């Protein structure tokens, strides 16, 4: 069947080339992060789950103890970078044009604007999308997926790859629980089924409830990385 479908075979080859190229750039990024002991965190979610809101709050908290920087990906605009700038940390906006995910080469370009040797923790806010960002390694140390209560508890079952490759899953907007039909018990079950490897946090970026545990985890990850030397 495959041999009969010349167009299909061509598409597969191109995709493999893109991923191969990305793998090389991701390895370079990983080596650079290691060299400068930078905890790089790739933050993924669907649009509007609260990635930028979380980064503003987290940067504000962590900057007392660590040098925080952010690279933020969006198709267009500098809206998110401007919001993060308000938190008083270095930020670079990466506009992807039409691409619905960040790749390792795009992240590499942001290094000319970020002083990696002076950075302890680099957050990379990926383009809002639960599908292909899962396929593109950016060279990060930790991959975090944010899921908001407004999206529905079945998302881990419907979009497994992004959850299965995550180190940590955060359920955001728990302040909305009294007003919506989101079943958090079912969501925990779905996460356990889909990604038993991932640690989970539940919080509200609006009220701040639960954010302390998340920030403590990040501090711990940073220490683990320093110990790995
Ligand atoms: N009620 C409530 N709203 C929240 C919470 N966190 C974020 N929001 C709101 O959700 C909306 C989207 O938040 P953003 O931080 O822009 O989400 P995002 O994931 O960065 O969105 P994209 O960059 O477009 O993918 C904003 O109106 C936030 O104020 C929360 O914990 N509770
Ligand atoms: Mg955002
Ligand atoms: Zn994409």
Structural overview:
There is one protein chain. The chain has a seven-stranded parallel β-sheet with strand order 3-2-4-1-5-6-7, sandwiched between helices. It has eight helices and seven strands, in the order αβαβαβαββααβαβα. The model has no long low-confidence stretch (mean pLDDT 95). Helix content is 41%, strand content 17%. It has one domain: Rossmann fold. The chain has 229 residues and is an alpha/beta fold. The protein binds guanosine-5'-triphosphate (GTP), magnesium ion and zinc ion. Zinc ion (ZN) binds next to loops. The site of magnesium ion (MG) has 4 residues, from α2.
What's the short version?
With 229 residues, this protein is an alpha/beta fold.
What compounds are bound to the protein? guanosine-5'-triphosphate, magnesium ion, zinc ion
Largest sheet, in brief, is: 7 strands, parallel
H/E series: HEHEHEHEEHHEHEH
Shape: globular
CATH hierarchy class name: Alpha Beta
Multimeric state = single chain
Strand line-up of the largest beta sheet: 3-2-4-1-5-6-7
Q: What is the total domain count?
A: 1
- Strand percentage lies at 15-25%
What CATH architecture would you give?
3-Layer(aba) Sandwich
Percent of residues in helices: 40-55%
Identify low-pLDDT runs: none
- Output the structural class: alpha/beta
CATH topology: Rossmann fold
| Counted beta strands | 7
Task: Give me the Rg, rounded.
Answer: 18 Å
Measured between the Cα atoms of the first and last residue, the distance is 50 Å
CATH superfamily: P-loop containing nucleotide triphosphate hydrolases
């Amino acid at each position: 069947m495959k041999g009969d479908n010349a167009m299909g075979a061509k598409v597969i080859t191109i995709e493999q080339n893109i991923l191969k190229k990305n793998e090389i750039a991701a390895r370079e990024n990983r080596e650079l992060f290691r060299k400068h002991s930078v905890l790089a965190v790739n933050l993924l979610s669907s649009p509007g789950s609260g990635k930028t809101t979380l980064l503003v709050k987290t940067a504000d908290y962590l900057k007392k103890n660590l040098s925080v920087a952010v690279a933020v990906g969006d198709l267009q605009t500098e809206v998110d970078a401007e919001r993060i700038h308000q938190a008083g940390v270095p930020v670079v906006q990466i506009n992807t044009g039409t691409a619905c995910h960040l790749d390792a080469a795009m992240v590499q370009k942001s290094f000319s604007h970020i002083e990696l040797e002076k950075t302890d923790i680099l957050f990379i806010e990926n383009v809002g999308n639960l599908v292909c960002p899962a396929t593109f390694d950016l060279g990060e140390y930790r991959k975090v997926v944010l899921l908001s209560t407004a999206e529905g508890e079945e998302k881990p079952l419907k979009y497994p790859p992004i959850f299965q490759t995550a180190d940590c899953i955060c359920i955001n907007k728990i302040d909305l629980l009294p007003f919506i039909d989101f079943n958090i018990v079912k969501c925990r079950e779905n996460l356990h089924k889909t990604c038993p490897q991932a640690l989970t946090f539940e919080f509200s970026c609006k009220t701040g409830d639960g954010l302390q545990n998340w920030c403590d985890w990040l501090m711990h990850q940073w220490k683990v990385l320093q110990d790995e030397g």
